[in-house]
Write a structure and sequence with these properties.
Structural class: mainly alpha
Largest sheet: 2 strands, antiparallel
Number of strands: 2
Strand order of the largest sheet: 1-2
Radius of gyration: 19 Å
Shape: globular
Mean pLDDT: 88
Low-confidence stretches: 216-221
Order of helices and strands: HHHEEHHHHH
């Protein structure tokens, strides 16, 4: 192995700055939405929004993913490095979304405050600490992938890595969407299952570490 690249620190900084700025754009939209639908402050249960606003919100969320993915594609030079930059951009964006809401609205009061995290295919709800922890793991794994690819170190997810990631995703999504009465019928949410969040994060971490571990076949090539 003959590493031909250095760690792309400057590019990681620029991708992070994009995430910080994009987080402000996202939070500013939510500031306006809360002024319309929650003038006395955001609390659950959820309020029904107009069909026009719901359509715009769904399209905005889809556009957000496209923009973050585009940043990864532009910043990276090859497949997995592009995915790593996407993870960094996504994680920084999500973290600073809450940072900017705290600066502008002094919300959330604590990391245990509930929030609407996403709307596709059903509203995702959960305490703020959940997306923040997921975002921190995304940033850590994203930086790790970018650095490993730049230094030509092993990163190759196999079937087990994919299975761990898929199961982790299903577990975490279930923790956000299992309380259908809250999301669809305007009820107060039940307590959040933190054990599901912990299990999902562990599965994600295990999948990443397994992808970084060369197999015997790789070592003998």
């Amino acid at each position: 192995m003959h590493p031909s690249e250095h760690i792309p620190i400057s590019k990681l900084i620029w991708v992070s700055l994009f995430g910080i700025a994009f987080g402000f754009v996202e939070s500013s939209v939510v500031v306006y939405l809360r002024a319309i639908y929650y003038p006395e402050g955001f609390t659950l249960p959820l309020k029904v929004i107009s069909n026009e606003h719901l359509t715009v919100e769904l399209l905005r969320e889809a556009a957000t993913i496209v923009m973050l993915a585009a940043m990864g594609i532009v910043a990276g030079r090859r497949g997995w490095q592009r995915f790593g930059y996407f993870l960094v951009a996504f994680g920084v964006w999500d973290i600073f979304y809450y940072v900017w809401l705290k600066v502008i609205l002094n919300w959330p009061a604590t990391l245990s405050d509930w929030d609407v995290l996403f709307l596709i295919p059903l509203p995702w709800i959960g305490p703020v600490v959940a997306p923040v922890l997921i975002a921190l793991l995304m940033v850590a794994c994203g930086v790790g992938i970018v650095v490993r690819v730049a230094l030509q170190q092993h990163f190759k997810p196999n079937l087990l890595s994919w299975m761990l990631a898929i199961v982790g995703t299903c577990v975490i999504l279930y923790s956000f969407m299992y309380d259908v009465d809250t999301t669809l019928h305007g009820k107060v949410p039940a307590s959040y299952h933190y054990e599901l969040l912990a299990a999902g994060l562990i599965l994600y971490g295990a999948g990443y570490l397994h992808a970084c571990k060369p197999t015997l076949k790789n070592l003998t090539l």
